[in-house]
Amino acid sequence: MDRVTDFESVGQGSNPCGAPSLAMKPPKSEEKLILLLLTRLERISADSYWAHRASGVRGALLKALEMMENGSQDSKPDILITKGFEILNEAAKEKAR
Length: 97
What we know:
Elements lengths: L28 H14 L8 H19 L8 H19 L1
């Protein structure tokens, strides 16, 4: 995967009026990867065998992302990220058949 969507350019910690918001901070690279995975997992066809598994991983990734944003050190999403990419890979193989 050579390209990653540039989530830093969206928002940049400002509200719609353009004034800076102290509550928003730019996402870390791990957070960007989770956001990218969430959008990709969401697009798996509901007819796919992998859709149900993707749903579970998406829920766990959302929870991990929330924990990361709240500053929790307990969140280690590496396994979830790996599982998300495995599901995407398998869903792509299924679609190619």
